[in-house]
Amino acid sequence: MSVTLVWYLIVAAMMFAIGAWGAMIRRNAVVVFMCVELMINAVNLTLVAFSDYLPKAHGAGTGYAVLVIAIAAAEVAVGLAIVLAVFRTRRTVNIDEINSMKG
Amino acid sequence: MIFVFIVLSAITLISSFGVVISRNVVHSALFMSGAFLGVAGFFAMLHSPALAALQVLIYVGAVTVVILFGIMFTQRPQVRRFRTILNRQVGAGFTVALFVGALLIYVFLQQDWGSTSAGHGPRTVASLGRILVGVSSGTDIFALLFEVASILLLVAVVAAIVISRRKTGEGVERRAEE
Fold this sequence. Notes:
Chain A is mainly alpha-helical. Helix content of chain A is about 75%, strand content about 0%.
């Protein structure tokens, strides 16, 4: 019995679900960012698993994983800049109190 | 191999859980780097050592440090109780996340993946580089995606500077108020 594709996919699905749970229930904006990063990493894991296990993929999943890492790094830079700007004007990063755009 | 897989998945899932339920924000960031290290181990298991190295450099190194800087700038010392870190949707959020995870696992198990065998990924750095510049067979689109990603990184860095920059005199005024 060896490690198959489905095992990786199940671990990635569980990681994605944990990240989604955290993004829904935490109040701190920085922790919500961390949970989004967890979800991005779970998707990367599925991409690389497909790239390694599917013969017709030509290894494209690994290339997509590199692009996803680059875009996630850009997202962290812009997201933390927004959190800093919000903290400077509101003196809080609690996302339950940042509701001035609520209709 | 199975033993390594079980250890890595335990590291990844326990660290992910720690990110969500840890009461201290700095502990959350350190748990997050643990989860990233677990994923890097998975990449090494999946015959992508170059991607594992990139994961360690970018996520465990750079992203964790940037997030720790964000924590240093934004967190005030406060009472740490579960009531203060979690909002009122804990139960509902758990139900939704459980449903999402169960649905994903169901789809993954139902789908017929055909003949799968390990070892088709780009093992060497040279083949990964050929995929990224689009000269490998079947990956022509990466020639475009690579350029778009580089422009996106440039725009994102400039945007981060513009958004987080302090306007002239803003910091001085606040210091006078306090």
